[in-house]
Amino acid sequence: MSTLLNSLTTELRRGTLTLAVLSQLKIPQYGYSLVQRLEKSGISIDQSTLYPLLRRLEKQELVTSSWDTSESRARKYYSLSVYGEEIFTQLKQEWEKTSQELYILLKGEGEDGAD
């Protein structure tokens, strides 16, 4: 893949990863379980991308975290805050609207011969 295509693909994925992560945090998840859930849906995410994203979402008060120390290995669980649920719902609606508009635009690509 060319450097330009790599850059554009990364830019495209950046916003969608936030939506994908938020969508999976209605039920508390720890990092590895979140990676597995996303991969099961065909979305790959490196831990070097996931943890900074989770920290940013927590700083923005969209996500809360807590430690589970009931097992031998402590795990940090992340879940949507009330504010995060509100933002996720609005973001999801915006995504659906934008993707429908883009689908129509791309489907009609080249039909009028203008491009």
UniProtKB/TrEMBL annotation:
Residues 19-87 form the Transcription regulator PadR N-terminal domain. It holds the Pfam family PadR. PANTHER family: PADR-FAMILY TRANSCRIPTIONAL REGULATOR (PTHR33169), TRANSCRIPTIONAL REGULATOR RV3488 (PTHR33169:SF14). This is PadR family transcriptional regulator. The lineage of its organism: Bacteria, Bacillati, Bacillota, Bacilli, Bacillales.
